[in-house]
Amino acid sequence: MTTGYVYNEVFGWHDTGTNAGLFPADHRLGIQPFQHFENAETKRRLHELVVVSGLIDQLTPVRPRKATDEEILLVHTEEHLARIQAGSDHPKGGDSGDGLSPFGPGGIEIGRLAAGGVIALVEQVVDGAVDNGYALVRPPGHHAVPEHGMGFCMFANLAIAAKAVRRSRGVERIAIVDWDVHHGNGTQAAFYDDPDTLTISIHQDRVFPPDTGLVEERGTGAGEGYALNIPLPPGTGHGGYLAAMDRVIAPAIDRFQPDLVLVASGFDANAADPLARQGLTSSAYRTMTERLLEVAGQHAGGRLAMSHEGGYNPVYVPFCGLAVIEALAGVTEPLADPYEPIFGGMGQLELQPHQTALLDQVVPLLDAIGSGTRA
Amino acid sequence: MTTGYVYNEVFGWHDTGTNAGLFPADHRLGIQPFQHFENAETKRRLHELVVVSGLIDQLTPVRPRKATDEEILLVHTEEHLARIQAGSDHPKGGDSGDGLSPFGPGGIEIGRLAAGGVIALVEQVVDGAVDNGYALVRPPGHHAVPEHGMGFCMFANLAIAAKAVRRSRGVERIAIVDWDVHHGNGTQAAFYDDPDTLTISIHQDRVFPPDTGLVEERGTGAGEGYALNIPLPPGTGHGGYLAAMDRVIAPAIDRFQPDLVLVASGFDANAADPLARQGLTSSAYRTMTERLLEVAGQHAGGRLAMSHEGGYNPVYVPFCGLAVIEALAGVTEPLADPYEPIFGGMGQLELQPHQTALLDQVVPLLDAIGSGTRA
Amino acid sequence: MTTGYVYNEVFGWHDTGTNAGLFPADHRLGIQPFQHFENAETKRRLHELVVVSGLIDQLTPVRPRKATDEEILLVHTEEHLARIQAGSDHPKGGDSGDGLSPFGPGGIEIGRLAAGGVIALVEQVVDGAVDNGYALVRPPGHHAVPEHGMGFCMFANLAIAAKAVRRSRGVERIAIVDWDVHHGNGTQAAFYDDPDTLTISIHQDRVFPPDTGLVEERGTGAGEGYALNIPLPPGTGHGGYLAAMDRVIAPAIDRFQPDLVLVASGFDANAADPLARQGLTSSAYRTMTERLLEVAGQHAGGRLAMSHEGGYNPVYVPFCGLAVIEALAGVTEPLADPYEPIFGGMGQLELQPHQTALLDQVVPLLDAIGSGTRA
Amino acid sequence: MTTGYVYNEVFGWHDTGTNAGLFPADHRLGIQPFQHFENAETKRRLHELVVVSGLIDQLTPVRPRKATDEEILLVHTEEHLARIQAGSDHPKGGDSGDGLSPFGPGGIEIGRLAAGGVIALVEQVVDGAVDNGYALVRPPGHHAVPEHGMGFCMFANLAIAAKAVRRSRGVERIAIVDWDVHHGNGTQAAFYDDPDTLTISIHQDRVFPPDTGLVEERGTGAGEGYALNIPLPPGTGHGGYLAAMDRVIAPAIDRFQPDLVLVASGFDANAADPLARQGLTSSAYRTMTERLLEVAGQHAGGRLAMSHEGGYNPVYVPFCGLAVIEALAGVTEPLADPYEPIFGGMGQLELQPHQTALLDQVVPLLDAIGSGTRA
Ligand SMILES: [Zn+2]
Ligand SMILES: [Zn+2]
Ligand SMILES: [Zn+2]
Ligand SMILES: [Zn+2]
């Protein structure tokens, strides 16, 4: 198994300022300066663990390049690109669109490298230069809609990459799974009317954006049925996630018969994330990766690429991310996760009836998914 | 309303080292040095918000003193005290008992001041020098059992204070509510056979300690029925907590008719805590405080004192803590919590059927609670 | 001895962003995000040491208030005030004037409290409510010239306070000593033509501003002779500083016969500061304080007030600052400085011939100083 | 020009704890927990700048390996190795020997990799696999004497490498230049009686160790004359350093005619270092590197390898280190150093008479240096 790996130290230089978690510091509001939840630590520490654990020796480095205007405009509007450029040119930097997503002077170049890093990886996967791969990029992308960024995301990295390889390599059928704990609204928006791109977002019910990601959002026009949402209740652990994998995600991909499987890989569904309330540990991420590899192997020649999204616990994201990349690389003797017994030891992480009830709502929607011209 | 307030900057100097969240850093295990989850930030930032918001002007400072050996031994064994002293005397410091609870050289003195700070506050409340109060101390205490510390706790601050005022002031009936998201196992252990001390712990089901805090734990011997546990499922928000307050906590105190109400006030049930999966916001903490003030007013002459326990999100604990202290002080124009709309906007934070089911198990246990010789 | 002490936690909330020491982060220039040299740590840690050492119990708290427009305009132009207000109103904050002095939204209010904190202290000293005092404020002030801020300084805190008490209390003759390692150019500028205000800056030769603070700068017009500069060579230790105190500073004040002595108290001449190259330890600061107390006792009834300025080593500033405040308070058993043997152990910190040569240039300038109408 | 480069992310995981700069935190002594001066930031940020600037593409990665017991014992005693092993096996870690040099559990392995990284680089330089090179390792080594570590150093990395290639490759004559601002006492001790190894330490007079590095220390026995010390006065800038290079260091190497030139490359003589008082900027480091390359080219076939030592300003070390590595690699369009105008703008950084006086003492000592059997 050859697994591509994208990282560049400059991803850690994306500057989200002294926001106190979310908001700019302002003593009049009682907000003391601190650091943004979306700071460099989770990503830098994951990369360092990839190196220190020795996993790096089993990966094939893929060099990120900067996405061009043309590539970014495959998803975004000219207005959005211009806004990011303007913020990047300002001496105090700018914001990607919602006031919660700051970036520093020159920030657009890091955003281009994040998007272009994912493109480069997906190109190599499609070209067979590597079997699969992981792009550890920053800023994240899955909340960025065509018209603006939001939720700490500047450009829709993975959606851009999907459109780029469709254009450059003629890839027809693409399945995109988003296991970030927040709704993959940006990715969904980019393909909402497209029956050749199946988007599946598994997330915690209405966390962010606060009002999207409902079961009822299923795509529109020709794309109707090709957007799936699995809004799991708060407090869901491996039980609910693996059931969703078995009952919804794998079967949906199975029906869809993609040429390529992409994953928006956030780690904020882990049991120690501050920005959501789910309960996964590294072993759940490992298992989910293995399931997706299996289904990608059946339909897409194993072509699977992941792009890093959220995840805000600097201590635990590294171990969850390591498990995923180890699984991609087929590592047979993975590093033990010392936090698993603690974080995974909470009560009621097994499948619960109210989680099953949600899945029962989603399962019937699979019927609408076809395999395109292959059928 | 006069509200006492205990804080000393040295609480921020309790040194939990470079543990990566929980475990000592060790590159062989893939654990990069970082900071302990239980570091100074949440507490220091809460204190600074108390000052910067101006609330400090409405509080009465209560000066902490160091708990004596005699006071500590009201709860703990001589062996435990000796172990902490030995660690404190070691040039590299020690650990309170479970390998997850480090402290630095001289650490016992900070532990004495934390316990003694709670004693001083409770004494003033009992003496009527203040109506109620909040002790913002560190290290926390509610996991420390008589034989050893654990869960970041060195001494059982609140249990020691309860026994100290019972001894020095003859306070007979004490109700202790523990809303830290973890089980108040140490406090429970200190009074497990004591029918004059009602302990109520509302927590997330089996987080820490991993196997205690079950509904079945009810006290022993004469104390049978005087320990209550409310192990809410993961993902519970204000709905479940306020229902528990209405259906269990307030009625239990009502039956018990205490002379004094104490609260182990952790903020790790908030919606952004990394170490648990519940969903409270500052308004829920405010409401819970108001309910307890009300019931303390009915039975204990309003005598209510809180001791700070866990809470691991440095951004959000300050706003939750501020709301509680504002409520204690009867502030009528509280500071707006800017995070409330975000953190409290998640789906399914209202009361859910599986949470009601848990409360249905606990409610019948109230029948065993009597009001002692008053009845 | 009664010693006033000004501090407010909000001084630590003055937000200097993620500048890498000096400059805004910008990956295109190779500047990784970090923290500004002028961040909260040195001041917050000094305050915490004042508390933890117990010194706080020997001080009289003086509450800071916000300087009014009228007070600020005693030194600054309307244009400068308007610029700070505009930056303060901007969602990304502003800069005090040179691009190296950022502040956050609402920052002007913290600047007002810093200036007003110094005013409040000086008023109490003049009124005899306290004998002397220390204002631990932030942002600093001594580089701010009438037309703009610079060098991390927003408003000329100490110059404003001097003019304010002259106006409100009729204080006539004021001596201002600036021992910050950088030239007190702002304070000097505020009184350059004023023979009733003697400004003495002892600093390292041409560090900041890069081209001021020369021996030749002596005041203008009626003020000629009433500005003194002592630009010590890099590498000067206690030897050179105490010789300067004996040969220049004390004799100058002696001749001037002030009613009030003010000190711009930066700690960046200490032996571990990153932004200058001098070699003082806490004992040198203690001795300098004692000398100034002595001379203030002879001429100004002991009326001496200090305002905190620079100092950028978070480890060592606290011990230097503590020594100064202990000396003000007449503490007879000061806390031992554990760093003194290390930082003060460097070679050649005694008086060196090339330092004497500089002092020899300055000493003759004392002849021009008169005692005003008293003479 | 081929330039080897050693780095491994685990060097940033060497855990120096929560020491406040130097000493373990202890509230009884007024020492608040903080970070050790010798923490990961200066090195990690230098590495990241090497990547982000693009310089990495012009370097040849050299993989570090762990130094063996046999290699370490070329310099150190069995007792020292056993002490480090014991500390490494302790759950709280250990100290390298002086109480100021902590390391964490498993720390010996990082120490082995640092020493072995330097060995690997020097081997490749000697073998001609690369022309020259830089080993960015941590912990540092130049203070470690045979019997114990000290001054943040565990093993004498560069001395071990010198002895290792002498043994394995038969390298005879080795010149070691140490431009760390502190005395290279450990390196000097390892070769004090060896006429085949010329050690030259240029440092600030008596900083650390407090009493070594005097001009009078010249070697012993057969090695007499082959240790040189240049204890520059505090406050020395590029003027004094470049004069020392011209008048002492280059001529000494010229006389010695080495087969290999090694450099202990600390950056704590820079103008913003907290632990010393010198005034170099990146351009001085660049020039010094060019001079050494020149002299190594004349005598040692250009074989020059550098090992990273001290340097404690996280903002400025990266730019100084970058300049050195750029110079090694013969980069013709180096990155501009934005801090140079500020930090290098201080007065009196040009050669001063009292610095010349020191050099005048050292120059005559060159006469004792011979070129061995080549003469
Ligand atoms: Zn997310
Ligand atoms: Zn807790
Ligand atoms: Zn200064
Ligand atoms: Zn050094």
From TrEMBL, chains A, B, C, D:
It comes from Nocardioides aromaticivorans. Coiled coil: none annotated. This is Class II histone deacetylase. InterPro entries: HDACs, His_deacetylse_dom, His_deacetylse_dom_sf, Ureohydrolase_dom_sf. Pfam families: Hist_deacetyl. Belongs to the histone deacetylase family. Residues 36-326 form the Histone deacetylase domain.
